[in-house]
Design goal:
The protein is α/β, with parallel strands linked by helices. The structure holds beta-D-glucopyranose (BGC).
Length: 718
Amino acid sequence: MDIKALLSKMTVEEKLAQMSQFNSNCLDKDSDGGVTGPARSLSLTEADIAATGSTLNFKGADEMIRMQDEHMKQDRLGIPLLFMMDVIHGFRTIYPIPLGVGASFDPDLMKRLSEMAAKEAAVGGVQVTFSPMVDLVRDARWGRCMESTGEDKYLNGLMAKAAVEGYQGDYSSKYNIAACVKHFAAYGAAESGRDYNSVDMSEYSLYNDYLPAYKVATDAGVDMLMTSFNLINGVPSSGNEWLLREVLRDRWGFGGIIISDYNAFREMKSHGFCADDYECARAAFKAGTDIEMMSNCYIKFGKRLLEEGIITEAQIDESVLRILALKDKLGMFDNPYRAASAEEEKALFLCPEHRALAREGAEKSAVLLKNEGVLPLSESVDRVAVIGPFADVGMIGFWSCHGKESEAVSAYRGMCDALGEERVSYAKGCDTASNAKSDEALLREAVELASRSSAVVLCLGEERNMSGESNSRADIGLSDAQKTLVREIARVNKNCVSVLYCGRPLALADIIDDMPACAVMWQPGTEGGSALANLLLGRCDFTARLPMSFPYTVGQAPIYYNRTRTGRPAHDEHAIGKMYSSHYLDCPNGPLFPFGYGLSYTAFETSAPEVSKDSMNADGSLTVCATVTNKGARDSAALVQLYIRDVVASRVRPVKELKGFERVELKAGESKVVSFEITSDMLSFKDSSDNDVLEAGEFHAFVGLSSDEKRAASFRLV
Ligand code: BGC
């Protein structure tokens, strides 16, 4: 398609409509929409609707085809709509939430899962997913932890790249869809972990910690980027000229589409940044946002801004060309339905291959926190009680698109399928709500069942809507009813594993001692129960590690491993500090379970690391290596992690930062040497003006099994 020729035929109104996106129910006359329905509140005209460029939130292939048909009849120039959707961890076959996939430390897994999601979404009529979300998060109160791959920029970057590659591929297949990295920028740093709250941070921290993962996604060729709801240092992202023009466009060279978040233009009024919709349009235009999601400021005021000379038609054209270019790249002008197909939906949704991959995802995401000889359960275990508010629920989590809880395998179902129904029993134990109080009858039934069972699988945590957008929590512990259940069951049966379903790290200090074993399943998706059974029975091992620190208590938030050093450090991060050191009176500084931590059914050990030479120069490299040994009786895979500390620098650097990891397969008793090459790009940092700084001096390299590793080898950059 000659998109420049097409552009030359468009009126200003048509261009502004391309730059606007509305919910499908605003456009769909058959769903009580159109100008008589939800669109009325946006005062959209028939002409606006006829020329609209894209839509979001629709039901699948049939609806997409019907809407596109309708649209093609109305659109004067025959420009197809783009259909976008939040395909965050699967379309119909749901895999673990991104925080879980983060725990796998396996970018290839993320890529394969994203490919699967793209395939189902494509046949469901989607051409753009609002994913990956790469917001760095250090505060577990924030409900959207679940959408992020965690607290580390390096891991987030690898996962972002893998997701972009999985979704987009090279667009050679009709099953590839465009990706949209979000939420630019620093949305995960919302003050107090409260969603939509303001972000105020130094440019030093933005450049070093918060921006890198978005940059990895733009470097990987992501075609779209979404602005965030929050302020950054006093300016909302959608109207932030510095962020979008200077950093994103000019410095990073991002040439894709910038879309706002849902209604974020008009929210600039609530922020107190714009007086009215006209000012919202002006701020967003000046900042360079190409598509306005779910509000009408561009449509209503774009022309006036043009007539007043505040924007130029060339600016509008630039945005419209980007949008037309994506439609062209996706082949929409040749086939406006692209891959949408109700038959293919039937063939692909929940097909055995997709279920198997979702199961693999759930197995590789689960983290074993504690195991006092409870696991693995014996294959010949006779009476297993699956107890708890989440024991018989399909745990697919927030943002589960078209996934259905009823199609997901619960823990109880998974254990029944694995062992046979006659060996497995169920009791609910207590209610699901976060403020649930114990129900005596449910509790008694559960304790009684536990007392006559040989093993107990206790399914606890958070229900679907306790994490996700706008679902922040000030208390991130288990409910009182769940804690009572844990304690009462521990009294009658010590062969009990607590299984946690959660969209964030939970604060477990007051209950972990009552749990003989504890595993985190996150929100595992469609095949959660089958994955759980395989893990608990030792048919596969726990290989995932924490992508976020689990605090002792919510009072430690934000807590993350790569903090900067204070002048009065605590002598021991795991003990209560001394007077006049930086400490709490009532809690250690460090987390209960650190980033990178997780157990397996065997015990791994690493030797103290050694460097190949004492120094390197900026063009050179050196190697750091350690021996990793499987000390246990089972074959398994260790996740060996490399962290580096810059000992003295002109800006204070973190205590350590993850710079690499390797999964090492080891037979029982086997040892292998793991080595990492250190190059100077791993030693540099950003100054407050976004320049790379590389300073000579001493560095420490840690090689170990979590971010808590203390042994380091020293070397110098000369
Ligand atoms: C969320 C975005 C999402 C958008 C569209 C917003 O509320 O913040 O992440 O992509 O809605 O559904």
